[in-house]
Structures are given as C-alpha cells and as structure tokens.
Design a protein that fits this description.
Elements: E1 3-8, H1 14-24, E2 31-38, E3 41-48, H2 51-60, E4 67-73, E5 88-90, E6 94-102, H3 105-114, H4 126-138, H5 142-150, E7 155-163, E8 170-175, E9 180-183, E10 188-191, E11 203-206, E12 212-215, E13 220-223, E14 229-230, E15 235-236, H6 252-258, H7 260-268, E16 294-299, H8 301-318, E17 322-326, H9 327-330, E18 341-347, H10 353-362, E19 369-374, H11 380-384, E20 387-390, H12 403-421, H13 427-438, H14 440-448, H15 451-459, E21 466-471, H16 475-490, E22 493-498, E23 515-520, H17 526-537, E24 542-547, E25 559-563, H18 572-591
Parallel strand pairs: 16-17, 16-18, 18-19, 19-20, 21-22, 21-23, 23-24, 24-25
Antiparallel strand pairs: 1-4, 1-10, 2-3, 2-4, 5-6, 6-7, 7-8, 8-12, 9-10, 9-11, 11-15, 12-13, 13-14
Bound molecules: 5-amino-5-deoxy-1-O-phosphono-D-mannitol.
C-alpha cells in the first residue's frame, strides 16, 4: 500500500526516483509524485494514474536536483486525485511522502486548522507535514523537528522529508510500515522495498520500528525511538536482478506461473533428503517440534488459503488439532491458547499489517513459539518471528499471488510432515511422502503443459459475470484460491463452496449462464463429487472439470474436461492450483484487464 523512494546524490536524482517508483508500482498505482530539492527550492510533479503519467510530465517539464522523494499511492483517505497525490507540502519549502495510516489525523487536523494551517488534500498524510512545519517554529533543526512530530502520531508510517534549505541531507523514518536504506558510494537512498533500489545499489540496511534516519551523501545516521544513535548491519542483496524482469513473458503473472517447477525445487532444496524431512531447516531450535500439541495458523488472502490446506495435512498426518484464521479477525478477538500451541504465520511479503499485528499480539499470549513461513528474508515478519521457513520463490511482482502460494504449500507440507514425525508418523510413511515431494516439480511442469488447452477454455468465460468453484477436502481451499484469482484479475464475480454444500443453497444459482468449475481429485471422495456434478448437470449448469483421466470424466457429455496429472493425494492441492492460475490469467487477458496490477489492489497490504 503505497511505495516511497528517497535519494541524495551528487547527480540528478529524478531518473533514480522514477525508476524506483516503477519498481514499486506493485504497492499502489492510482497516482504518483516526486519532489526534488534544488538550490532554487523544492519543486514537484504529481499525476493521477500509473507512474507513466508522471514520466510524461517529466518529459514535458524535467525537474533537476540532487535530493528528492517520491511516492506511488494506493488511496486510503481521499480519492485518487492530483490534490491527494503525494508529496504533500507545508508552505512551498517542506515536502513529505508517507506510506501507512495516521489514525489520529482528525484531532491533529483540527488542532492544525486552529493554528491557521490550510489543508489542500483529504489525506491523513497532510497533517504530518504541517506538524513538522509547526515543530520547526520552536525547533529549527529538521531532524529534531521530525523526531518531535513522530511522538504525536498514532498509526503506521514510513516517511521521507525534504526541505528547501537542506541541501546536504534529508530525513526518513519508519514505524509500522516498511523502509529500507540503500547504501551507495557518495549517494544514499531509502525505499519501501529493496527491489526499488536494485538499479543503484545492492547494499541495504533494514530499519527497525521507530527508527529515524538522517541521510547525507556520505553518511547514514540511524536514531532509535529514544533518539539514541544505532548501528544497524548492512546486508548484501543476493537475488538475481533478472528476477524482476518479465523475460519472454507478456506479464509478470505468467512468468511467475511458469517459474513454479523451479521455485518449488528451491523450496524443497536442503529441506528433504531421499527419505526424510530435514528438521534442521527450522534452525538450531528444531526441538520445538516434539512439544507441539496444537497449531494456530494466521494469515490473509491467498496465504490464508494455504493455511486452510495445511489444516487438513496437520490433522491427518500428525493427528494434532489445527485452527486457521484470517489475521484481521484474529487480532481483534480474545483468543484462547491451548497449552503448547505453535503460532504459525503465512505471508508472501512479510509486511501485511494484519498478520504482523496478529504476530505481535500472539507473542504476548503464551504460545509455544512463533514460526513464519515467508518469501521475503528481510521482512518484518521474519525478523519478528522466533523461527522462519523461507519459501524461496524469489520476488513475486504480479499482484495476484501464484508461485508464492504453491511454495507456501510446499513449505507447509514440509512442516506438516516434520510435526507428524514427532507424533508417530512411521519412517515408511515419511519416506513415501518425501518421495512424493521430490516428484512435485515434475508434476507441476506436466500441469503447465495444459496451457494451450486452458487458453481455449478461457475464451468461453469472456462474457460471464459469475462463476462457482467446487471442491471437497483439500480441494475446497484450492477452489477458494481459484475463485479469488479469477475475481482479482478478471473482475468476474466468483465464489467457492465445498461441493457437499451445493444443495444447501448455492444450487439455486445454477442455470445455463453459470459456469461451475469443479476440482475433482482422484481419491475416496470421487464418487461423492460425481454425484454433486450430476446435481449441477441436471439443472443445466455448464461444467468445467479439472481431473485426471482415470476419473473417467473426460468422456462425459456436457463436461469441458481439463486434464490434471494423476499424483499422490498429498500433492493434489498443489498440482490442481496450476490450471486454475492459467485459467484466470487467460480469462483476464481475453477481457483485457490489467493482469499484473488489477484495479483497486496492491501487492503488499501494509495498512489495516
Ligand atoms: O503478503 P501476504 O501473503 O501476507 O499477502 C496477503 C494477501 O494480501 C495476498 O495473498 C492477496 O490475497 C493476494 N493478492 C492474492 O493473490
């Protein structure tokens, strides 16, 4: 939700900032802006729409300067208009960009208005810049004025501040929203995500909660929330920079779908042997596994769906109770924590505000320990959890999560088996499961081979307004994930139900205009699911079935059949995910929507 970039250099920073914004567009893309400090003062451009609209303004009227801040917005307070786009100013000499939400902005706004400040936007952000301006009246040092101001703010923020008479420094700060410092040679930077700065540096400092940072060309000075100077370690980014290129693909989403065999291998690598799960993957403290008596999984969106699958695995393989909950619910209720419960969070980004809040709450509630399954090693979630299992999917740029989901499932499978081994799973069964996992990348490749067929099927969805996804067992969360993917990028209303629930209500929706997407695994539920399909066919519903050939459903009339490889039942949820990702991708392409940056959404949800 919103991305910020800041730079101080000996060269013009405009290009650096614009490139940074383009790389951050996944965080929000309804408007953007840049403020550049040069010897004549602070000048800015703001534009509604994607960063290209801002680039167009620079093409007509370039801005030149060696210190600057920039922002790409995902609207929270106020519509996506130029007036609401950042940077926001107090007077014409102090500019600020902000990611996050200031919860007490209303009383602060009233206070500032009483002091004579005029507001030009509807944003919560504008109060911060006026507060700093006000603080400067009694404390002329910009750094101290920012520090004083931050104590008045409730909520979450990452900010960057420039002032026209400060030609050798700018100030940034974070609390609740991510911010990383990029360290260069005679130039330094900040950004919401290190990806935004990979074109200028590979050296990063991850700021801690409450940190305020003063950046000059030659120095980065970090103050903690007590105002004490702190040394924070520099990390060197080790992803392949090409991971952020689309390569031969038209969209990031398709590139990321096709990367799945490779990244699932990377997720398994070093975590399983020929016969066993290697518990060393949980770090030196893997002793916690034997003490677990319950598991609470908390996550949002797609990550929550991965957690739902894991519930089936943990209860089935380990025989331990497992509950799964969306973080935005968990964080606001009184939670009963049974003895020896593992608190497990799932997050692609590791920056989702609700999941982080849930983790912080859980840490006060007496859980056995906290484990994060996450894709971003440097994320807040990873840093704040006792234990981590990284999914190793590499950067995921498309807003619709694909490879992050299947690698989360892979990591959850490893975790479920590891817990099960401590709860009596036989060595023989462990070996069987590990063998199945080893074949997973190949099966995912097989599933991808249906791409051309699915593209043809997708054409039939172009004029549909609704769709119903059905599954049973682990296929129910996959049906939920399939329906989320379809609505997210094609804007077709879609719902998912456990197939057995059909006759309890949703059957009323079924007619010749309603496509029904049924996920049919080859297990002991097959006959029951076939009966559910009969119920749909009898009411004229248009059936799209995803199953292996041995189910015999490929020869049925009135069924559009897509073959999914026949696999060990433990792998079914992962392998069945692939055709659903391809289906939503092709439907979105046919409909001409913005596949990688669907309307109203953002990749990293760092606000409540
Ligand atoms: O980064 P996280 O996994 O914590 O994000 C959670 C959700 O916001 C995310 O999965 C969202 O639902 C995806 N856009 C779905 O494709």
């Amino acid at each position: 939700m919103c991305g910020i970039v800041g730079a101080i250099a000996r060269r013009n920073v405009a290009k650096i900032l614009l490139e940074g914004l383009s790389r951050l567009e996944y965080r929000g893309y309804d408007s953007s802006g840049v403020a550049i400090n040069n010897l004549d003062g602070v000048s800015s451009h703001r534009a509604v729409g994607k960063v290209q609209a801002l680039r167009d303004k620079f093409a007509v009227e370039p801005l030149d300067g060696k210190i600057g801040i920039a922002h790409t917005r995902w609207a929270t307070h106020g519509k996506p208009t130029e007036a609401n786009a950042h940077p926001h100013f107090s007077g014409d000499d102090l500019a600020l960009v902000h990611n996050g939400i200031i919860e007490n902005h209303e009383p602060l706004r009233r206070e500032l208005k009483a002091k004579g400040y005029e507001f030009k936007s509807e944003t919560d952000t504008e109060v911060i810049v006026h507060l700093i301006h006000d603080a400067l009246k009694t404390e002329p040092d910009l750094l101290k004025a920012v520090q004083n101001t931050l104590t008045k703010l409730h909520g979450a923020f990452a900010i960057g501040v420039v002032k026209n008479d400060e030609n050798d420094r700018f100030i940034a700060a974070r609390k609740g929203s991510p911010l990383v410092v990029g360290v260069g040679i005679e130039e330094n930077f900040v950004a919401s995500d290190q990806l935004a700065l990979l074109h200028v540096t590979d050296q990063f400092i991850f700021l801690e909660e409450g940190d305020v940072v003063e950046l000059t060309r030659d120095q980065v000075t970090i103050f903690d929330d007590n105002g004490e100077v702190q040394e924070r370690p520099i990390s060197v980014f080790n992803h392949n920079v090409d991971a952020t290129d689309k390569g031969e693909f038209r969209h990031y989403m398709m590139k990321e779908i096709y990367e799945q065999p490779k990244v699932i291998s990377a997720c398994l690598d070093g975590r399983i042997s020929e016969t066993k799960v290697l518990t060393s993957c949980f770090g030196a403290e893997s002793g916690f596994l034997k003490d677990i008596e319950n598991v609470h999984i908390v996550a949002c969106g797609t990550s929550y769906h991965a957690g739902m699958v894991a519930k089936y695995w943990i209860e089935d393989l380990a025989g331990l109770p497992c509950s799964v909950e969306v973080a935005s619910e968990y964080r606001y209720r009184k939670v009963a924590v049974p003895k020896n419960t593992l608190f497990l969070t799932l997050s692609q980004s590791g920056e989702t505000a609700d999941t982080l809040a849930a983790l912080r709450m859980a840490k006060e509630l007496g859980y056995l320990t906290t484990l994060a399954i996450c894709n971003v090693p440097s994320s807040t979630l990873v840093r704040e959890s006792a234990l981590t299992l990284l999914t190793n999917a590499g950067p995921e740029i498309g807003v619709a999560s694909t490879k992050a989901f299947t690698t989360q499932l892979t990591a959850l499978l490893i975790t479920s088996v590891a817990i099960a081994v401590e709860n009596g799973l036989s060595a023989e069964k462990e070996q069987e499961l590990v063998q199945a996992m080893r074949s997973l990348p190949a099966y995912v490749s097989d599933a991808l081979s249906q791409d051309a067929h699915i593209k043809v099927v997708a054409d039939r969805f172009a004029n549909k307004h609704n769709a119903l996804f059905l599954g049973r067992g682990t296929m129910f969360p996959i049906a939920l994930e399939g329906s989320l993917k379809l609505k997210e990028i094609s804007y077709i209303h879609a719902e998912a139900y456990p197939a057995g629930e059909l006759k309890h209500g949703p059957l009323a929706l079924v007619d010749e205009d309603m496509p029904i997407i049924a996920l049919v695994p080859h297990n002991d539920m097959l006959d029951k699911l076939k009966s559910n399909l009969q119920e749909v066919a009898a009411r004229g519903g248009e059936l799209y079935v995803f199953a292996d050939k041995d189910t015999d459903l490929n020869n049925e009339e009135n069924i559009t059949f897509t073959e999914v490889p026949k696999v060990d039942s433990i792998l079914e949820p992962i392998v069945h995910t692939i055709p659903l990702q391809l289906l939503s991708y092709h439907v979105a392409v046919v409909k001409g929507t913005d596949v990688d940056q669907p309307r109203n959404l953002a990749k990293s949800v760092t606000v409540e």
